[in-house]
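FORM 12-B: Structure-to-Sequence Request
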């Protein structure tokens, strides 16, 4: 219930202040495990990633946020779960894989941090998808969050990562690069639109 209320409020916020346009929502499977992989430029990216969709999106969030009394309770109720700084713990990975095996949707930013925008990408998204059998949907967030300027979110077609199912370190790097390449392609295509 809290998630639906928050999504409605964010939808109004993004529509009013950033003229949100969502493209390709039909590419996001309506059921089953999905990893949404998006580029990361702002603290507003996580709510933006899930706002246009009807399904709940789970996110890893810094463990310190859960120590803030009201905020910690709210983000727990809207599907976030803690991850420690400096690396993802086994417990966080296990929880993420279990969420996916249970047919949920997980939002991941393969770049890792906002400061790594345009970087090579981290292997976590590919690893989670391959371990759980989840569909991988590339997502491009296009725009700069400037008030009253258009923000566009583009959901691409699910990627076939079956060629990287060996899950060796090299396979994960290649799978991650395939994800990042498609995010960059979508971003480039819709930046010009």
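FORM 12-B RESPONSE
SEQUENCE OUT:
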């Amino acid at each position: 219930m809290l998630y639906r209320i928050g999504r409605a409020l964010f939808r109004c916020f993004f529509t009013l202040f950033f003229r949100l346009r969502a493209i390709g929502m039909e590419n996001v499977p309506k059921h089953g495990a999905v990893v949404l992989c998006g580029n990361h430029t702002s603290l507003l990216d996580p709510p933006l990633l899930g706002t246009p969709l009807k399904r709940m999106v789970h996110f890893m969030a810094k463990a310190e946020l859960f120590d803030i009394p009201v905020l910690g309770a709210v983000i727990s109720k809207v599907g976030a779960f803690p991850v420690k700084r400096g690396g993802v713990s086994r417990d966080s990975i296990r929880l993420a894989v279990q969420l996916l095996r249970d047919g949920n949707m997980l939002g991941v930013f393969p770049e890792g941090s906002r400061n790594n925008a345009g970087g090579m990408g981290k292997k976590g998204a590919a690893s989670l998808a391959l371990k759980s059998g989840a569909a991988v949907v590339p997502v491009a967030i296009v725009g700069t969050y400037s008030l009253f300027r258009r923000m566009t979110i583009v959901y691409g077609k699910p990627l076939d990562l079956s060629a990287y199912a060996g899950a060796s370190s090299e396979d994960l790097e290649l799978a991650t690069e395939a994800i990042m390449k498609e995010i960059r392609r979508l971003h480039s295509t819709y930046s010009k639109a």
